[in-house]
Structure formats: C-alpha cells, structure tokens
Design brief:
The complex is a heterodimer of chains A (about 350) and B (about 160). Chain A has about 350 residues and is α+β, with helices and mostly antiparallel strands. Chain A is about 45% helix and about 15% strand. Chain A is built from 12 helices and 10 strands. In chain A, strand 3 and strand 4 form a beta hairpin. By secondary structure, chain B is mainly α. Chain B contains 8 helices and 2 strands; from the N terminus they run ββαααααααα. Classes of the chains: A alpha+beta (about 350), B mainly alpha (about 160).
C-alpha cells in the first residue's frame, strides 16, 4: 500500500457513515506514550531520536495489528505535498508535518489507525472512525496499545500514570475528540450555546484541523482537556452520554426552527451555495468549504434531493490543495489552482 | 455523616466484632487517632513511602542548582516551552508540578486509568496501587452517599488489596 493509493477515496473521517453521521462526522481517540529510558523529544540528541524512531517503527511493523496494507511514511524525507496530504486526511498533525528531524507515521486498518512517531511524545496513537463510534474506537486503540506495550516499555508512574512531555496530557494520555457539523446552530447564531456548554464541562472546542485552527465549514471539534484522575472509560462515557447528545439536540432543534420559521431563507442559503459551486470559475478552499457546508445541510434536510451525500462529503476532502494536485497529477498554484478546483467541482456536481 | 465524638465530618469507619456482636464506629481522623490501636498513618500507600525513601537516597530529586539530574532541564526551561525533558522530571519537580496539575486536571493528582501490565508487573505492583486509589475514591463517595452496604464491600476490597502488596 502506498500513499498515492489513498487520494481517490474519501478516507475514514469523511466516509459519512456510522451512527449519527448527519451531525457527527467522526470520532477520534489518541493516546500519548513515551518509551521509558529515552529522554522526551525536547532533550533527545539527533542519534537518540533516530534510534528511537527505528525502534518504534520496527515494533509497529512487527506487531500483530500490522498487515500488508499497513504502511510507514518517513516524514523527514517525504515531499511537502505528501505531508500536506496526510494532514488533510487527519493522519498527522500540522506540527508533525512542519517539524524537523527523524519522525514518521504508520497508517493501517483502512486509515482508522495512525501512529505518529516522534511528535510531541514518542508515540501518538490515533484511532479515527466515522460517525459516533467512541466505544469501538476505544476498543481498537486499547488493543493496539496493549500490543505495542508487549514490546515497548512505556514511561509510567503509579501516581501520575503515563508520563508525557506536556503535563496537560499526563495520566491516561487520552484525548477524545468528536468532529461535529453544526451549520444550523451557526446560521441561527446559537453556536455560542455550544461553547458555553463545552466550557462548563471543561472541554475544548477547536476547528477542522485541531489546535489553533478555525472552525471552517461549520466543523467543530470537541475534546476533553483533563487526562488525570479519571479512567478512560469515564472520560469516554461522559462524551457519549452527556456532551454529544446535548449538542446533537441543540443542532436538531436549530434545524427544526429553520425549517418551520425560515424555510425560504434556508433554501436561499442552500441553493445559492449549490449555484456557486456549479458555476464558479475560480474558487478558494475556504469559500468551497463554506458552500459545501450549506449544501450538506440542504441534502441532509432533503431540500436538495438529486444529490448524493457521499459526493458532497468527498468534495470536502478532494478539493483541498494537496488532494487536488495529487488527483490532477500536477503542481498548481494561485489562480491556476483556483481554476482547477472550480472545474473539478463543476464536473463532480454536474453529472447527476 | 458526623463524628460520634465531635461535630467534624466522619472519615474513619470502624467495624469491630466483640463477643460475636458487631459494633460500628464513625469518627473523624482526630478522634480516631485517640483510639488505641488505630494506625494514624494508614492512608499513606506503602509504595509511596518506599518511593520517597529510595528517591531521598539516590540523588534522583533535583540538585542544588534546581535542575533535573537526568536531563538537565530547569523549572524555568519548562515554564518557557511547556514541555518537560524526561520522565524523571515528574519526580524532580514534584512540588512545583502538583499545583499546575491540579489546575489542568480538575484538581486531580493521581492516575485512575489504564495500567500497563508488563511495566506494572516487572517493577512495583503498580496496578494494585492504582486500584487502591480508585477503591478509596469510591469508598469516600459511597460514605458521602450513605451507602454503607457498598462502603463495607469496598472496605473489604481495600483490605484485600493491601494485604497482597
């Protein structure tokens, strides 16, 4: 399996299936782990960093969860566009893309599993699944962690739990994130309610690509902040039974309000967005995401009936810069890229 | 629930069997300390005492210059980047880190989640210690909720876990 084989499909996080997929785009769990006996990466020499990477890579590729379809990308030598592609597919973080030195990522199990090597911690294990599937994700990642731990000695203390470079991750080292599509709350200016509820529950709200990114296309990522003093199951349970149902309720309520009180305004937003995507000759990523978000809402509310939701979901990913250039097989910048994107969207949306 | 002897909250719950009769006592820490035979320091986990003892004799705590002897990072280095240099920093900067951890983690200071079985098995009985912390937390919740049946069960489990150490 190679990186270039991925470009034509939507990838796990935008597959648009799974429970609650109209609102819940994806469920992600990541575990931070460090190998005992090696300093954390800020204090690692070049040689130590390299040998750490090799040790972890070999362990991953020799583990039972690795199959013929599992592949490892050496990010120190990978070209820019490949690293960008991995970011767009949510398989590596932006800091991991831009960092220096020996580092990589192992991708397996149909992109549901990604293990970043030498990011902020020695290992950042991630499981990403479509829709609301937190328990399934936990089961999967827990098994992977067990297998890695049968070879690697993880830094652990009975009092502090798994020891991490940043003390905000110590303990379970777990970050549970759920990506939500909340266009109706945005349109009715009630998104503040979500921020308030999240703050009360001590959760972080972030944009499409995690820490420090904007909430483009009405995608919001809700994550836990505290990692110590609670079990993994407790943290996941809070999400599944308290936080997420509450936000889904808000969004449903806002959608119903739009339908009953402002159907014309709603249709106007949806059809203008579709008109834009079907007519534009030059279009930027940001504008594309905003329009796609409104179209997605329209399809989910059955205001637009002749458009397949999967086609819309795919476009969120395939119109991003690295994907677009990979699919078209050439390097494109500025106006040429905007023109190529507009044409690609028109083609995808015309034949149905 | 209040202490039988004074008005402070009762945190010590004793069950005695005397002549076939069950006697329950609910006391605060201070009043309990006055009872003969009650070990006042019973709550300090053995492993923590041992760890502190070992650390004090191994030069693993931070040295005079305030840096970690393992990775050489200082507290102000950490404050600048927000990142620690090695696993021993958690011991070296224990006192400085504790308030910071409490702020970041809802007041929590002890791990209650997954324990690696191998690392746990080869060094100290880590899993058991984490279990004990969890059981003690559940016990105080049960007492708060006045669920004494559950509390009694938890007390038995704690006693059992302690005797295994």
């Amino acid at each position: 399996m190679k990186l270039s084989d991925l470009t034509s499909q939507a990838g796990e996080w935008l597959r648009g299936s799974g429970p609650m997929s109209e609102i819940v785009i994806s469920s992600r769990i990541r575990l931070a782990r460090n190998v005992a006996g090696f300093p954390f990466l800020t204090r690692c020499s070049k040689t130590a960093r390299k040998s750490l990477e090799e040790k972890i890579r070999d362990t991953i590729l020799n583990s039972r969860f690795s199959t013929a379809k599992t592949f490892y990308v050496d990010l120190e030598s990978a070209p820019d566009i490949d690293r960008q592609l991995l970011v767009e597919r949510h398989l590596i973080s932006r800091p991991h893309k831009d960092a220096q030195g020996a580092r990589g990522v192992a991708v397996g199990e149909n992109e549901t599993l990604a293990i970043m090597v030498n990011e902020e911690d020695h290992l950042r294990i991630q499981v990403l699944r479509s829709g609301l599937q937190l328990e399934e994700a936990w089961e999967q990642i827990n098994a992977v962690d067990d297998q890695l731990e049968s070879t690697l000695d993880f830094a652990f203390s009975p009092r502090f739990g798994y020891l991490t470079a940043c003390p905000t991750n110590v303990g379970t080292g777990i970050r549970v994130s759920v990506m939500l599509h909340l266009p109706a709350l945005k349109l009715t200016s009630e998104i503040e309610k979500v921020f308030r509820a999240a703050k009360e529950l001590r959760l972080a709200v972030r944009g499409l690509y995690g820490e420090g990114t904007e909430a483009t296309g009405d995608f919001y990522q809700i994550s836990n902040q505290s990692t110590l003093g609670k079990s993994e199951e407790e943290i996941i349970g809070d999400f599944k039974h308290v936080v997420i149902p509450k936000i889904i309720d808000y969004e449903h309520h806002a959608r119903r309000a739009l339908l009953s009180e402002q159907p014309l305004a709603l249709d106007n937003k949806v059809w203008r967005a579709l008109g834009l995507l079907r007519s534009a000759r030059l279009i930027e990523t940001e504008e594309t995401l905003v329009a796609l978000s409104h179209v997605r809402l329209g399809v989910n509310l059955k205001r637009v009936k002749d458009l397949d939701i999967n086609k819309v979901n795919e476009l969120f990913l395939l119109t991003q810069e690295a994907h677009l250039q990979k699919i078209l097989g050439k390097k494109l910048e500025g106006a040429a890229r905007q023109a190529a994107r507009a044409e690609f969207i028109r083609n995808r949306l015309s034949n149905n | 629930m209040k202490c039988e002897k004074c008005n402070r909250p009762a945190t010590v719950h004793l069950t005695e069997i005397r002549g076939g009769k069950k006697i329950e006592k609910h006391l605060c820490e201070t009043c309990a300390g006055q009872i003969e035979g009650y070990p006042t320091k019973a709550h300090a986990p053995i492993n923590e005492l041992l760890t502190n003892f070992v650390l004090a004799h191994s030069g693993m705590t931070k040295d005079e210059t305030g840096t970690c002897p393992q990775c050489g990072i200082s507290w102000s280095d950490f404050r600048q980047t927000g990142l620690l240099g090695c696993e021993h920093d958690y011991i070296a900067f224990d006192k400085d880190l504790t308030p910071l951890l409490q702020r970041a983690h809802d007041g929590a200071t002890h791990h209650l989640g997954k324990v690696p079985t191998r690392r746990g098995g080869t060094t100290v009985p880590v899993k058991r210690q984490v279990d004990l912390v969890r059981l003690r937390k559940e016990l105080s919740r049960a007492v708060e909720a006045e669920d004494y049946e559950k509390a009694a069960k938890l007390r038995d489990q704690i006693r059992e876990a302690e005797t295994q150490v």
